[in-house]
């Protein structure tokens, strides 16, 4: 055999092996095991790096795993190898769409139409893309939440069994008691897991309680009564325990209001939220929870809560959390004088307390409007309103606050939503107060936490600051997608 | 047979510093997978895309990579590629391959890092054709000269060395034909901060006095005197990672001063907040749409605590001091 011949044979053998690997990858792809699909496409490419189909297939697998950067690279490579490979254009167009390069995507569809002028499917894809480009902006303004069946309907909690070797806390006669809460907090502090049956029981019950509340909760503090208002806690369970150590456990004489953002970012979100829900069930009239922008699907998917619940429990349980979050009230008024909400005031003048009361809140927040503003807006120092730096809702000035308070006969608002070095901030001449209760936020910011004491006698805010306490060296969400990184290295 | 050295504190410290190489490369791997910028080669150094990083980290790395690349490309343009680049503490950096693709290669690209890191990098290059092909293509013979701790080709060279041992470093660079008369760009990203101020000062001094026409670009921490800086130092200490050179990271002024007192002619420094604001707006808008950032303050704090500082010596009067953002 000549040297050339043996080289050719070796190449043919390699290509055959590569094909086998591609078949393997395709099978994984069909099974939605995209990680393995990528792995085997990669191995196929190592044997045969000039195969456009392998690149195109891997590109699709990358699209499925949201690695749009790599999807684009592979699609581009496929086209470099074979510029007539139509699928390559489609892949590249999809990648470009995901990367926000709309014009580039449209160009690829144009190319296909040019190359295949009689191809109806190509023309359709081009028109679709054109429509999608126009609709993308449109879609952002419209939030349509389809009516979903509740997870509760598909649960059979009664028949869930608790194993004999489970040594953790259980509800007493299906109810949350003070003993249960104390045992629960100690159990969590020790990094142990509450049995899923108990978690489900809590969730189903708290969903029931929250769904009966109006979107605007109204409470009255008598002269001798007081309340403690806390801001964002963001999964910082050990700092939450510290708040209870410093300020006392919740009780009918020690009421609390937690102003949203209980989960995400911090590594112990499950422990925080189950503790807060537990106390809500124990003291429904004296323990209040308001919704924050992080009690939503988008935020939970990105910032860890969904991953944490899926790792510690199941996807189904996360679904139930999502439903429960939708029933959290949006604002609370105290003695008709102080209004509390997570984000802030509104993008337009003229919103009344009655408007808030009437909000149909059992949904994901829309991209704009009063429900969105309550969860997302921020105060600003200058008068008027500005486009929000966050890209959602608005920033509102002291004049907006003044007009709102006047119209609704209120004294001031308390909100959270922004990390503050001192744990709190008083702005708008005392009419807009921010309170944030996650000290050393993300283990990085070095900020203090704070909470507010409000007495029924004078409703004057009294600020208490506190520092972060140590927490177990658990790699944050080691079991899910970790968000912990200390900066540039 | 030599007796085994006991495991000293400095071994632990060095090991912790070497581990930061993986922080940088895994972050870049993740950010590129999400489309923040294109890097065709990092995947050959870091196999798996790995765990998610927070959006502010991805944006921070975007700023770093874009900022550094802007200055690097400007130096290459100014010298018409008639120059050398030396990347100190290069880790698994892929700049050489980017420059080859974009056709703006220096006469020779040198990388220096701890021998253990270099050995890893050489292994990847050896075993991955997409990495080795560009080296072979730019080499005059068919095979590369390599052993466990160094790889040398006509246009690319990687050297295992300790930046605190300047005589050895100089000897190795000379061995692989570095030309001190050629305009040379030195790069260090989060490298000097792991050396004591004395050691890094000696390094900067040596560069200034050995290379009469040169630029040194340093990316690392700044404004470290506040709470955020304190927390960062504590967090890193828990990983046995010591910011031995953090005193120089007090302010932009201290970062500049270290170069001036080491014999450099002129120096500029900007914090990353400023650099980020000077990057092309359209691309910044694009990457900010990739992932929604829930708390801008996290990004602001991060950007305010890192800087790019670039110093110049210009014996050939090439106008190097004009290079900037």
Automatic annotation (TrEMBL), chain A:
- Spell out the protein name for this chain: Serine/threonine-protein phosphatase
Q: Which reaction does it catalyse?
A: O-phospho-L-threonyl-[protein] + H2O = L-threonyl-[protein] + phosphate; O-phospho-L-seryl-[protein] + H2O = L-seryl-[protein] + phosphate
Repeat (TPR) residue spans along the chain:
18-51, 86-119
Q: State the UniProt keywords alphabetically.
A: Acetylation, Cell membrane, Cytoplasm, Hydrolase, Magnesium, Manganese, Membrane, Metal-binding, Nucleus, Protein phosphatase, Repeat, TPR repeat
Molecular function per GO: metal ion binding; protein serine/threonine phosphatase activity
Q: What is its EC number?
A: 3.1.3.16
In terms of one coarse class, where is the protein primarily found? membrane
The record's similarity note reads: Belongs to the PPP phosphatase family. PP-5 (PP-T) subfamily.
Does NAD show up as a keyword for this record?
Answer: no
Q: Fetch the Gene3D superfamilies from UniProt.
A: 3.60.21.10, Tetratricopeptide repeat domain (1.25.40.10)
**Which branch of life, at top level?**
Eukaryota
Q: Where in the cell is it found?
A: Cell membrane; Cytoplasm; Nucleus
Q: Which organism is it from?
A: Carassius auratus (Goldfish)
List, alphabetically, the GO terms of the cellular component aspect: cytoplasm; nucleus; plasma membrane
Instruction: Decide whether keyword Repeat is in the record.
Output: yes
Task: Using the record's annotation, list all stretches that form the Serine/threonine specific protein phosphatases domain.
Answer: 290-295
Q: Which cofactor does it need?
A: Mn(2+); Mg(2+)
| SUPFAM superfamilies in the record | Metallo-dependent phosphatases, TPR-like
| Catalytic machinery residues | 294
TrEMBL record, chain B:
Alphabetized Pfam families for the sequence:
LCM
The residues listed in the UniProt record as binding S-adenosyl-L-methionine, with positions renumbered to this chain, are: 64, 89, 162-163, 189
UniProt enzyme class: transferase
For this protein, the Enzyme Commission number is 2.1.1.233
Task: Give any GO molecular function from the UniProt entry.
Answer: protein C-terminal leucine carboxyl O-methyltransferase activity
UniProt key word Cytoplasm: no
Q: Which SUPFAM superfamilies match?
A: S-adenosyl-L-methionine-dependent methyltransferases
Enumerate the UniProt keywords alphabetically. Methyltransferase, S-adenosyl-L-methionine, Transferase
**Keyword S-adenosyl-L-methionine, does the record have it?**
yes
Name a GO CC annotation attached to this entry: cytosol
From its record, what is one biological process in GO terms?
Answer: methylation
Q: Which reaction does it catalyse?
A: [phosphatase 2A protein]-C-terminal L-leucine + S-adenosyl-L-methionine = [phosphatase 2A protein]-C-terminal L-leucine methyl ester + S-adenosyl-L-homocysteine
The family database entries (Gene3D superfamilies) matched by this protein are listed as: Vaccinia Virus protein VP39
Recorded hits in InterPro entries, A to Z, give: LCMT1 (IPR016651), Ppm1/Ppm2/Tcmp (IPR007213), SAM-dependent_MTases_sf (IPR029063)
Q: Which residues form a coiled coil?
A: none
Q: Which family does it belong to?
A: Belongs to the methyltransferase superfamily. LCMT family.
Functional description taken from the UniProt entry: Methylates the carboxyl group of the C-terminal leucine residue of protein phosphatase 2A catalytic subunits to form alpha-leucine ester residues.
Listed name of the protein: Leucine carboxyl methyltransferase 1
Q: Report the gene name.
A: LOC113111752
């Amino acid at each position: 055999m000549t040297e050339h011949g043996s080289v050719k044979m070796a190449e043919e053998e390699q290509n055959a092996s590569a094909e086998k690997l591609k078949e393997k990858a395709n099978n994984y792809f069909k099974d939605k095991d995209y990680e393995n699909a990528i792995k085997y496409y990669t191995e196929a490419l190592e044997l045969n790096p000039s195969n456009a189909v392998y690149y195109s297939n891997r590109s699709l697998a990358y699209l499925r795993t949201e690695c749009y950067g790599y999807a684009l690279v592979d699609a581009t490579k496929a086209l470099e190898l074979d510029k007539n490979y139509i699928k390559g254009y489609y892949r590249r167009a999809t990648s470009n769409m995901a990367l926000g390069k709309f014009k580039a995507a449209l160009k690829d569809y144009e190319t296909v139409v040019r190359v295949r002028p009689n191809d109806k499917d190509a023309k359709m894809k081009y028109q679709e893309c054109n429509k999608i480009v126009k609709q993308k902006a449109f879609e952002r303004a419209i939030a349509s939440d389809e009516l979903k069946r509740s997870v509760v309907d598909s649960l059979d909690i009664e028949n869930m069994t608790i194993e004999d070797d489970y040594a953790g806390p259980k509800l007493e006669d299906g109810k949350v008691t003070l003993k249960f809460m104390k045992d629960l907090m100690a159990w969590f502090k020790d990094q142990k897991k509450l049995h899923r049956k108990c978690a489900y029981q809590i969730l189903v019950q708290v969903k029931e309680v929250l769904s009966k509340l109006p979107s605007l909760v109204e409470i009255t503090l008598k002269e001798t009564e007081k309340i403690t208002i806390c801001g964002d806690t963001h999964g910082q369970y050990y700092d939450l325990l510290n708040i209870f150590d410093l300020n006392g456990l919740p009780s009918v004489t020690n009421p609390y209001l937690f102003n949203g953002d209980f989960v995400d970012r911090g590594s112990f979100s499950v422990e925080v939220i189950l503790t807060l829900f537990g106390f809500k069930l124990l003291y429904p009239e004296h323990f209040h929870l308001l919704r924050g922008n992080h009690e939503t699907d988008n935020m939970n998917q990105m910032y860890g809560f969904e991953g944490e619940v899926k790792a510690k429990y199941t996807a189904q349980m996360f679904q139930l959390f999502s439903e429960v979050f939708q029933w959290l009230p949006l604002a609370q008024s105290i003695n008709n004088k102080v209004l509390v909400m997570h984000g802030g005031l509104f993008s337009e003048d003229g919103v009344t307390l009655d408007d808030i009361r009437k909000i149909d809140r059992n949904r994901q927040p829309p991209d704009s409007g009063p429900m969105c503003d309550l969860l997302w807006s921020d105060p600003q120092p200058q008068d008027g309103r500005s486009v929000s730096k966050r890209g959602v809702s608005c920033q509102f000035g002291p004049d907006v606050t003044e007009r709102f308070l006047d119209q609704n006969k209120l004294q001031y608002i308390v909100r959270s939503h922004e990390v503050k070095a001192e744990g709190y901030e008083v702005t708008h001449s005392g009419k807009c107060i921010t309170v944030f209760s996650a000290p050393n936020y993300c283990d990085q910011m070095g900020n203090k936490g704070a909470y507010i004491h409000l007495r029924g006698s004078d409703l004057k805010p009294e600020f208490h600051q506190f520092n972060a306490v140590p927490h177990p060296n658990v790699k944050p969400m080691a079991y899910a997608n970790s968000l912990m990184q200390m900066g540039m290295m | 047979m030599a007796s085994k050295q006991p495991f000293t504190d400095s071994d632990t410290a060095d090991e912790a510093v070497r581990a930061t190489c993986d922080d940088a490369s895994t972050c870049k791997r993740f950010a590129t997978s999400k489309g923040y910028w294109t890097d065709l080669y990092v995947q050959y150094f870091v196999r798996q895309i790995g765990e998610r990083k927070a959006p502010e980290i991805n944006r921070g790395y975007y700023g770093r990579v874009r900022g550094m690349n802007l200055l690097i490309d400007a130096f290459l343009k100014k010298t018409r590629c008639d120059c050398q680049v030396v990347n100190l503490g290069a880790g698994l950096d892929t700049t050489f391959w980017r420059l080859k693709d974009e056709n703006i290669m220096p006469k020779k690209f040198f990388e220096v890092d701890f021998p253990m890191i270099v050995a890893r990098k050489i292994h990847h290059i050896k075993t991955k054709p997409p990495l080795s092909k560009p080296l072979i293509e730019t080499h005059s013979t068919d095979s590369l000269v390599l052993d466990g701790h160094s790889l040398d080709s006509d246009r690319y060279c990687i050297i295992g060395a300790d930046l605190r041992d300047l005589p050895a470093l100089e000897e190795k660079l000379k061995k692989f034909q570095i030309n001190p008369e050629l305009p040379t760009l030195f790069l260090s990203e989060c490298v000097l901060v792991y050396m004591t101020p004395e050691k890094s000062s000696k390094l900067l001094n040596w560069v200034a006095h050995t290379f009469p026409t040169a630029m040194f670009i340093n990316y690392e921490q700044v404004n470290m005197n506040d709470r955020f800086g304190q927390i960062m130092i504590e967090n890193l200490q828990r990983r046995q990672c010591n910011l031995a050179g953090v005193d120089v990271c007090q302010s932009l002024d201290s970062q500049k001063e270290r170069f001036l007192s080491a014999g450099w002619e002129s120096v500029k420094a900007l914090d990353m907040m400023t650099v980020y604001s000077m990057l092309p707006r359209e691309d910044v808008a694009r990457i900010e749409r990739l992932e929604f950032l829930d708390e801008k303050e996290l990004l602001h704090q991060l950007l305010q605590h890192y800087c790019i500082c670039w110093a110049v010596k210009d014996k050939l009067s090439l106008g190097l001091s004009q290079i900037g953002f």
